[in-house]
UniProtKB/TrEMBL annotation:
<dbReference type="GO" id="GO:0141040">
    <property type="term" value="F:very-long-chain 3-oxoacyl-CoA reductase activity"/>
</dbReference>
<feature type="transmembrane region" description="Helical">
    <location>
        <begin position="18"/>
        <end position="37"/>
    </location>
</feature>
<dbReference type="InterPro" id="IPR027533">
    <property type="entry name" value="3_ketoreductase_fungal"/>
</dbReference>
<comment type="function">
    <text>Component of the microsomal membrane bound fatty acid elongation system, which produces the 26-carbon very long-chain fatty acids (VLCFA) from palmitate. Catalyzes the reduction of the 3-ketoacyl-CoA intermediate that is formed in each cycle of fatty acid elongation. VLCFAs serve as precursors for ceramide and sphingolipids.</text>
</comment>
<comment type="similarity">
    <text>Belongs to the short-chain dehydrogenases/reductases (SDR) family.</text>
</comment>
<dbReference type="GO" id="GO:0045703">
    <property type="term" value="F:ketoreductase activity"/>
</dbReference>
<keyword id="KW-0560">Oxidoreductase</keyword>
<keyword id="KW-0276">Fatty acid metabolism</keyword>
<dbReference type="GO" id="GO:0030497">
    <property type="term" value="P:fatty acid elongation"/>
</dbReference>
<feature type="binding site">
    <location>
        <position position="214"/>
    </location>
    <ligand>
        <name>substrate</name>
    </ligand>
</feature>
<dbReference type="InterPro" id="IPR036291">
    <property type="entry name" value="NAD(P)-bd_dom_sf"/>
</dbReference>
<feature type="active site" description="Proton acceptor">
    <location>
        <position position="227"/>
    </location>
</feature>
<keyword id="KW-0444">Lipid biosynthesis</keyword>
<keyword id="KW-0812">Transmembrane</keyword>
<dbReference type="Pfam" id="PF00106">
    <property type="entry name" value="adh_short"/>
</dbReference>
<keyword id="KW-1133">Transmembrane helix</keyword>
<dbReference type="InterPro" id="IPR002347">
    <property type="entry name" value="SDR_fam"/>
</dbReference>
């Protein structure tokens, strides 16, 4: 249809049904405008706009960052990079040797040696031990905590259907992914709020809580149903808590994470869609306060900071046909399970 024919056709429709034409035209304009606004915002936040400066949360001013699951992977990288940014770090996990190694690395690094302090706190979150959690609460109550990173997490040993998943594995995933986040946040948050409500010259309005989420919490992941459910919990919990503490100028964000090359993901090689833990954490800390790929998707408090993850997240919510992505995820998990079982068979034969 030529431009002249199109103008003629539109003119005829407008003359025949003026009110209907105006309504349809207005809806069309609104839809296109919203698409352009969302696309522009996603691209700007992901590739152009910087997040909040970490000095806002006490970097180089004696503030502490508390990181759970800090012995390896993403948690270790948060510890190293926050220390390099000028935070004292409290490293929390169950592996004493691994935590001491991370603390020693912070102590010997040319960027952090003699500038910040690194302490460790042993907690086995799978045990949900009240005494260990109370000890952690006692420790953090005496620290000026500017940042909390709820990183500790557990996934399934391998993809499996819920009815075939061991009860202990289900319990461990829920205890670590949900209860640990709640208990640690409940231990740290009162101090953040109290310091922000104190009057006088030393009053510093700041605080940041980062909950490490997953795409599995945004689009249900069959054969990882328990893990997927706990990450969906984090999304909702973060949205609610973020609103509760907004008046205290405390930021709470759910980091919507796709695959990262770590032991937990069992992916060794990085790629465009699978960054290293160091690259991922660098992106997350550079985009604090922004939504990136999660912008305007009715998920307040959620951010997808790594650029390729952000674009995938944007496409998923732009298409909006979640059942399609759930079905595709199911196929991927079935393939992962087949490969995991074959690996176990090979290892059994070698013994």
């Amino acid at each position: 249809m030529s431009a002249t024919c199109l103008r003629t056709w539109l003119s005829e429709r407008a003359t025949a049904c003026p009110w209907t034409f105006c309504l349809v035209f207005s809806v069309g304009v609104f839809t296109v405008a919203r698409f352009l606004l969302k696309t522009s915002l996603v691209l700007a936040q992901t590739f152009v706009l910087p997040g909040k400066n970490l000095k806002k949360f006490g970097a180089t001013k004696g503030a502490w960052a508390v990181i759970t699951g800090a012995s390896d992977g993403i948690g270790k990288e948060f510890a190293l990079q926050l220390a390099a940014a000028g935070f004292n770090t409290l490293l929390v996990a169950r592996n004493e040797a691994a935590l001491n190694s991370v603390a020693a690395e912070i102590g010997m690094s040319s960027k952090t040696a003699g500038k910040v302090e690194a302490r460790i706190q042993l907690v086995d979150f799978a045990k949900n031990d009240p005494s260990a959690l109370n000890a952690l609460k006692s420790v953090v109550s005496g620290l000026d905590v500017g940042i909390l990173v709820n990183n500790v997490g557990k996934s399934h040993t391998m993809p499996s259907y819920f009815v075939e998943t061991a009860e202990q594995e289900i319990e461990d995933i829920v205890t670590i992914n949900v209860n640990a986040t709640l208990r640690v946040t409940h231990a740290v948050l009162p101090g953040m709020i109290q310091r922000n409500t104190n009057e006088g010259a030393e009053c510093r309005k700041r605080g940041l809580i980062l909950n490490i989420g997953s795409f599995a919490g945004q689009v249900a992941s069959p054969m990882l149903s328990t893990y997927s459910g706990t990450k969906a919990f984090l999304t909702t919990f973060t949205s609610a808590l973020a609103e509760e503490v907004r008046s205290h100028n405390i930021i709470v964000q759910n980091l919507n994470t796709y695959f990262v090359a770590t032991k937990m993901s069992k992916i060794k090689k990085s790629s465009m869609l699978v960054p290293t833990a160091a690259t991922y954490v660098r992106s997350a800390l550079s985009k604090v306060g922004l939504s990136c790929g999660a912008a305007l998707t009715d998920r307040p408090g959620t951010t997808t900071p790594f650029w390729s993850h952000a674009l995938v997240d944007y496409v998923i919510h732009l298409v909006g046909w979640k059942s399609l992505f759930i079905s595709q995820s199911h196929k991927i998990m079935k393939d992962k399970r087949r490969r995991a079982l074959r690996k176990l068979e090979r290892e059994a034969k070698q013994q």
